C-alpha cells in the first residue's frame, strides 16, 4: 500500500466522479419538455453533447490566440451545433440557456456527499474540474457539495490534462504536489496527475455513460488508493 500519510488536500474530478451528469441531464430535460413543449430525443442529445466535450477543449488548446474560453461557452457552442444536427425546432435563446445551465444542476452519486463530508473532517477538499468557477459553485449549491474552496481549470486557463491544472492547484494550496491527492473515476486524469507528482485515488463509476460505457470500469494504473466509493477512500484515510 502506498504511503499517503503526507496528504493534506484532496482534489476531485467532478463530471462522472462526483456527479451523475448523464442521468441528471436526461431527467432534467425530459421534465422540462413537459412544460416547454419542446420535443426531442434527450438521451441522444445528452450523449452527443458529452461526446464532443473533449474536442471542444482541444479547440481551445489549438488556438491560444483566441484566448481561453470557459466550459459554459463551449457547452453552448456545442449545443447550438447539436440542435441543428438533431433538427430540434422551436428553441428560443432562453431555452438554449436553460439547457446549457443544466450542467450547473447535476445530482451527486449517492455516496458523494456523505463521503466528502467525512473527508472534509481531516482534509482540505476541492473540485479540480474543467467546469468553470460559476458552474462548479452553482452545482455545489444545488447538490449540497461541501467543498472548502472551488478550483477550476478557469483559474489556470488550461484544461485538464494540461500540467498547469494539477500543478496550479497545488500552488494555490501552498502545498507540494505530493501532499495533494487527485480523486477521479477516470484513469487518464489520474495518469496525468501522477505524472505531475500528485497522489491518486480511483473510484469506479461503471454507469457514468450508461450503456455506452467503454472504459474506466476498473483501475488501470498504479494508483495510491482504489476504492469502490468515497466512503472507501474515507476508510483508507482514517476519516
Automatic annotation (TrEMBL):
It comes from the Bacteria. Signal peptide: none annotated. Pfam families: Hydrolase. GO terms for molecular function: hydrolase activity, acting on acid halide bonds, in C-halide compounds. Keywords: Hydrolase. NCBIfam families: HAD-SF-IA-v2 (TIGR01493), HAD_type_II (TIGR01428). This is Haloacid dehalogenase. It comes from Bradyrhizobium lablabi.
Amino acid at each position: 500500500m502506498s504511503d499517503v500519510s503526507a496528504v493534506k488536500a484532496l482534489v476531485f474530478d467532478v463530471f462522472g466522479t462526483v456527479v451523475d451528469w448523464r442521468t441528471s441531464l436526461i431527467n432534467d430535460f425530459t421534465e422540462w419538455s413537459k412544460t416547454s413543449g419542446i420535443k426531442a430525443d434527450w438521451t441522444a442529445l445528452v450523449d452527443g453533447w458529452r461526446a464532443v466535450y473533449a474536442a471542444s477543449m482541444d479547440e481551445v488548446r489549438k488556438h491560444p490566440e483566441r484566448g481561453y474560453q470557459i466550459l459554459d461557452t463551449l457547452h453552448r457552442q456545442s449545443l447550438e451545433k447539436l440542435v441543428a444536427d438533431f433538427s430540434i425546432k422551436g428553441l428560443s435563446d432562453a431555452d438554449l440557456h436553460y439547457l446549457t445551465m443544466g450542467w450547473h444542476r447535476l445530482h451527486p452519486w449517492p455516496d458523494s456527499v456523505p463521503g466528502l463530508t467525512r473527508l472534509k473532517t481531516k482534509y482540505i477538499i476541492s473540485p479540480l474540474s474543467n467546469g468553470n468557477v460559476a458552474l462548479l459553485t452553482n452545482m455545489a449549491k444545488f447538490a449540497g457539495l461541501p467543498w472548502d474552496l472551488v478550483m477550476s481549470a478557469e483559474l489556470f486557463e488550461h484544461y485538464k490534462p494540461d500540467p498547469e491544472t494539477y500543478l496550479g492547484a497545488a500552488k494555490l494550496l501552498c502545498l507540494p504536489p505530493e501532499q495533494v491527492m487527485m480523486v477521479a473515476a477516470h484513469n487518464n486524469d489520474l495518469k496525468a496527475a501522477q505524472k505531475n507528482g500528485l497522489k491518486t485515488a480511483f473510484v469506479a463509476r461503471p454507469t457514468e455513460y450508461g450503456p455506452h460505457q467503454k472504459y474506466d470500469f476498473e483501475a488501470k494504473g498504479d494508483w495510491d488508493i482504489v476504492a469502490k466509493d468515497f466512503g472507501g477512500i474515507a476508510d483508507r484515510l482514517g476519516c
